[in-house]
Amino acid sequence: MKILTFGASNAKSSINKALARFTATLVPGAEIEVLDLNDYDLPIYSEDLEKEVGRPPAAQAFFEKIGAADGVIVSFAEHNGSYTAAYKNLFDWASRIDQKVFQDKPTVYLSTSPGPGGAASVLASAKGSAQFFGVDLKAAVSVPNFYDVFDAETGRIDEPSALADLTAAAETLALQEAA
């Protein structure tokens, strides 16, 4: 099973990228591809620009990566209660290719932050709109206090409650493959 995973942030040391990568390792037998949003440099979306330049190759490449996966794990970073500008812009461009950006792929949504909120606001927003963008949402998990539960040396979360929630979410993708 090919799992595509990414943190919806362009921060080089994104904790959401670390969370997404770790969670993908919990999918039994998964072949994991980790995307970096920095590889999808795009101008700020506007209808006028789209009419002028068409659809940029980076947006098409992102859309095709999702299409080639058996499942997707994305972890949303929260900037001022919403998506990061980098993710929102990439998503906007990809949605012009097809509104069903996630192409009905089984998907796990995650979020985390250094504080107790766990980026729950952006996760709630993503969950609320998932049905409109071809997301077959299997699970959604917010992990608060990331630095308290993540071991940077091992790249793992061993805190029992968070690990149980992430394992259960990851296993929904493996169950999808078995069905």
Automatic annotation (TrEMBL):
<dbReference type="InterPro" id="IPR005025">
    <property type="entry name" value="FMN_Rdtase-like_dom"/>
</dbReference>
<dbReference type="GO" id="GO:0010181">
    <property type="term" value="F:FMN binding"/>
</dbReference>
<dbReference type="InterPro" id="IPR050712">
    <property type="entry name" value="NAD(P)H-dep_reductase"/>
</dbReference>
<dbReference type="GO" id="GO:0005829">
    <property type="term" value="C:cytosol"/>
</dbReference>
<dbReference type="Pfam" id="PF03358">
    <property type="entry name" value="FMN_red"/>
</dbReference>
<dbReference type="GO" id="GO:0016491">
    <property type="term" value="F:oxidoreductase activity"/>
</dbReference>
<feature type="domain" description="NADPH-dependent FMN reductase-like">
    <location>
        <begin position="1"/>
        <end position="135"/>
    </location>
</feature>
<dbReference type="InterPro" id="IPR029039">
    <property type="entry name" value="Flavoprotein-like_sf"/>
</dbReference>
<protein>
    <submittedName>
        <fullName>NADPH-dependent FMN reductase</fullName>
    </submittedName>
</protein>
